Automatic annotation (TrEMBL), chain A:
Biological source species: Methanocorpusculum vombati
PANTHER family: POLYFERREDOXIN PROTEIN FWDF, PTHR43193
The protein's name in its UniProt record: 4Fe-4S binding protein
CDD domains: MtMvhB_like
InterPro entries in UniProt: 4Fe4S_Fe-S-bd, 4Fe4S_Fe_S_CS, MvhB-like, Polyferredoxin-like_ET
Superkingdom, natural source: Archaea
4Fe-4S ferredoxin-type domain: residues covered: 30-59, 71-100, 118-147, 167-196, 205-234, 243-272, 275-305, 318-348
From TrEMBL, chain B:
Gene Ontology MF: a single term: formylmethanofuran dehydrogenase activity
Keywords attached to this entry: Oxidoreductase
EC number(s) reported in the record: 1.2.7.12
Pfam families found in the cross-reference section: Molybdopterin (PF00384)
Top-level taxon of origin: Archaea
The protein, known as: Formylmethanofuran dehydrogenase subunit B
Species this protein is from: Methanocorpusculum vombati
Residue ranges of domain Molybdopterin oxidoreductase in the record: 51-415
InterPro entries, sorted: Formylmethanofuran_DH_bsu, Mopterin_OxRdtase, Prok_molybdopt-oxidoreductase
Amino acid sequence: MAMSTMYPKYSTKMENDTVIMEQRLLKKVSHLVLNTTKCTGCGICSEVCPKEAIVLGLVGAVRRGAVKDEAAISVDPAKCSYCGVCTILCPFDALEVRVDGEPSLPIKEQEGFPEYDFTAEIDENKCVRCTTCSEACPRDAIVRDIPVYEGEVADGAKRQTALDAETTLVVDKEKCNVCGICASLCPALKIKRIPFTAEKVGSAGEVVWDKSLCDACQVCATACPEHAIAVERVVKEGSKLAGKVTIDKETCVTCSWCEKVCPEEAVTIKKFFDGEIVFNADKCPGGCSTCVDICPCNAIYLPSPVPALQLKKDSIEPTIAVNADLCILCGACVNACPSEDVITIRRSGIHVKGPETDLFKSIAAKLCIPRSSKIREDTFGQVELKPLE
Amino acid sequence: MPEVIKNVACPYCGACCDDLEVTVEDGKILEVKNACIIGTEIYHHASREGRVGSPRMRQPDGTYKDITYDEAIDYTARMLIKAKKPLIYGFGSTNCEGQAAAGRVAEEAGAVLDNCASICHGSSFLAIFDTGYPSCTLGEVKNRADVVIYWGSNPAHAHPRHMSRYGVFPRGFFTNKGHRGRKVICVDPRYTDTARCADYFLQVKQGHDYDLFDAFRMVMHGYADDVPEIVAGVPKEKILEVCDIIKKGRYVHIFFGMGLCHSDGRNHNIDIAINLVRDINEVTKCTIMAMRGHYNIAGPGVVWSWQFGFPYCIDLSKGSHAHMNPGETSSVDLANRGEVDAFINIGTDAGAHFPIRAFEKLGSHIPMVTIDPSVNMAATVSDVHIPVAIVGVETGGICYRMDNVPIQYRAVVPPYNGILTDEELFNRILNRMLELKEQGIECDGKWEYAKAIPSLIPVKLEPEA
């Protein structure tokens, strides 16, 4: 083999959830690693690649799991310069550049490129540690660092420990005849009985209360035949669950589901893209729903059918719709849509921090080209969009 | 020059797809578009080598010899007159014109006239007599149904384009989201390919559908709390989940098949299904439909209802009025009890698809005529085999889809070797019967050509010593 063909050596290999592109020089090895579970097929990497080394493939099929041994994007390991622009701009944290096995982003270290600037914060004072945002988040970006209570798992923390409260239980010894009912009902109560003896026949002893097990539920007080028990609980003002809810900024994609659903208005999200998304349902063929399945923000939905009572020819619900407030303008839907002109995305601005270099400006201009999908592409099996004005 | 014929209707299953495009040249079929694999084969079969081009009669040595149509018609007419109780059975695969002509022949012969319903959806008919038939056309399902239930039916294999034309995938007027707007429920003991297409699969214990219907009806009547934890192998929570889907549906439709008709309970599986439909109609709209098998098996039901008032198992032996009592006048029961003395197998294959104990009494003991375009098992043991034109390929006519919608079938090539259609054949048999009767031929329970063929009696093989 001729020397000229030996180095650099290029290869691509797929291992479980990763695709690894490799450039091997005599001493240095560069890798671009794609995490296929994180990749959403949004295509931002493909648009921003200075070397045009990244193409989009079967976005819908891959993301739905219909195609197993392929990723939504494919990178030419020989065209790639391992610059890391894709890594910086991937909103889903799916790409990583490694040099000699270590994560490496020299372009960022040398301040040659900015990064996304966005806000994703929860006001700790307003947050009541409810579960709404973590349930709603489509990316599992909510870190709910709260003790797990028995309502969630049987052996979780006791529910009374969730309250910052003072509980008192008083037994009126005059009235108490040591019948034992309270102790048989509640694990927080025991009776210390004076052993029965023929010498002095009767029931005597005392009720012992374990404060840490008491729920202040009042069952003992109500069940006591002699009305001898009084339970009182004083809850401290502003008492809320221990712990803290935060947003993992690595995972967050600024869809703002959490902001919209938070009952306390404790969340502030500022997106990294400005712009608009428009759905033209008249052109949607229906019965496809690929966009719904692959949207990383769960922003797209199938409108519910109108009840028969209100049903008229002109009131048939549209086949598809988007909640633009939840959309991050990532573009995955446009890439996956098999129809034409159904979805239009226009990005008008990108929020970044750091040096806005010429390279960045040229990339930003590309990201801001409005686009829709195309039915017939020039290259088979490769996503090609229709640029709009 | 090849010619493309459009809007051709397929003569296989009850879906009666009428959107086929067939390319023909010089009377040969070159290509079939839009049909499923089964339908495609029907058309190519017509142009294949080895078609039977004239009537054939079995000789004493067991071989077949070609005879003329006149001879074959004479044999059949004589057999029908001389027999005391001939049975004319089949008709799943011919047009309504043929079925009407056969009705006239049966009336003249005082025969028992029966169709494949008696071994297929006949039990559904019995249930319909009991409880009614709240049904619809397939277009209603396509345009409105948002909950579709395939209960004991497997269209993926039996009616291959049913799900794509009517039940699951089409985007209708009020169902613009296709299958994404429909909830599809499959009830079957097996995880069929239909179940794979469904959103909910209830794996019912084979033969326990009645229990499951009962549970569904309890839920519909508000007694959900009293449903046991498991019914017919299906967990209660799944029953409640599916009932909830049904109650929330805007238009519910149930398709049922042999899973109900052929399992324990027969007609009672169907009548409780129909009663469930009635219950669901208290809450929302619901219809039910039998997944009729052959492309025109609904045809004899309709034609003979016009002619005689009964859809199947019609005993015309009284000569003046018809009588129907499945169980007594149904083909398999008549055969099992040895109550017929001549048999015409038309547009079916009783040889392949009857229980062997029933067929051995027909095929080997009494004279038998098979009227069929091709050689099938019934033809191989018949005294006379009369080839006819294939409906939908070589001749047109009216056929009734599974929802009783008449579809105009058309011919794409001329009949092979100039063979007759079923209608022409039966008309000629009728005319010959009238001629023979004028000549004084009478019913005497004897026939001239009948020969028992002991060597063909199916017997249990003795194990080798």
